[in-house]
Amino acid sequence: MAKINGNxxxxxxxxxxxxxxxxxxxxxxxxxxxxxxxxxxxxxSGFANNAILEKLLEAIMGHTEEIRPKDMDMxxxxxxxxxxxxxxxxxxxxxxxxxxxxxxxxxxGLDSCIVMDCRSYPARSVSEPEKxxxxxxxxxxxxxxxxxxxxxIRRRIRDPKLTIESMQTGRSSMxxxxxxxxxxxxxxxxxxxxxxxxxxxxxxxxxxxxQSLAECLYPYKWYNPFPKFKFxxxxxxxxxxxxxxxxxxxxxxxxxxxxxxSSVFDIVExxxxxxxxxxxxxxxxxxxxxxxxxxxxxxxVWLLLIQNPQWLPPWLEFIKVKEVIHVPLILQLxxxxxxxxxxxxxxVNTPNMLTTPLSVMAALVLGEFSVKSGWFxxxxxxxxxxxxxxxxxxxSFELGYAVKFMRIITLILTALFNVWGxxxxxxxxxxxxxxxxxxTGHSYLYPLIPFSWKTIKRRLLRVRLRHGEK
Length: 470
Prior knowledge:
By secondary structure, the protein is of the alpha+beta class. The protein has 15 helices and ten strands.
């Protein structure tokens, strides 16, 4: 690394050559004089807090008496009245700090640089996340600014053992990453392995933030759709995971935290389970589990029974298709699976002012008229409407799509091979879950496999927190 040599003219030439200050309108360079010293201040206008920077420069330039500090340490102590300031000696380190939003002060004759942290990142409010809502609980959520997210966790865990490590990865992006954990509760082997992987990542940029990091940390098999990580936008959920001994990873520019290791029981847990009394929390857990199983089985089981009407008892005769079937039922179900995703994507991209009229139009066209036209029967529409709504009973998009893929595979196999196809579909689903592993290599179904009654009881039942319990 090139070291700062103390010649201000050469320093400015180096900064111009490296950063192209004249070509970048948001890179600011200000020449000023402090006593007998010529100085240069560099900052990025979009990051600098103008009020703080102006007060700081006013105080620095107020030293009109003759000053002759021998080195930058004395200059920092005597001239710069700011707590968040440090000294760096290499150009690369100074430039990295500048591009991170901090301001630089170069002094002619002194062979180092003062880095002043008077930045103010653009950020939205820490409002409740749209997807991770609760009926009762805190209404704040993570944002795209890493320092704010770390503060939201610090606010909930006031323990000196809470550690938040900072590191950077990506040759071009130099994305900030924070590892959050409790010193005495974290699995040290896992922590060291994750830290080493991040430090040795050979990527140009984390273009998709946490998803890019997740794929770099664990390049799992693409054909297993069940998620390896739990993502949450709630600071209370992240803080609870840290206190349970998990590792939480925050990535700058991402409004969610990545929790690991995560089993399927960790992924399906939600904050509402703990914001209500134990009996209510247990009911919510079982309701979510039962509804998730219904979304996996309801359409394949219905298709299987329609293909084998002799199995239907008299009290289930009503599930038969009443109208004439013009399009095969399996094709109707697959088209509806695709149509639901199309409507979901359309809802994401629809302006708010048009959401209501377009929703009404979609309900009329895709509901009533699709049945009258003969494309769809009312029964497949009913069951797929239940599936589309029931998918939102759990907050993990990744788990919802994993269940969707398993349901589609089971539907196709059932249509082709009847009961044997349904059985093979269930075997594929079970194998996809059982053969899945967490990032630490443990079972994805722990504490069910290997079985631990004490742990499984806490996973399935919302037990009361006893005095003195962590």
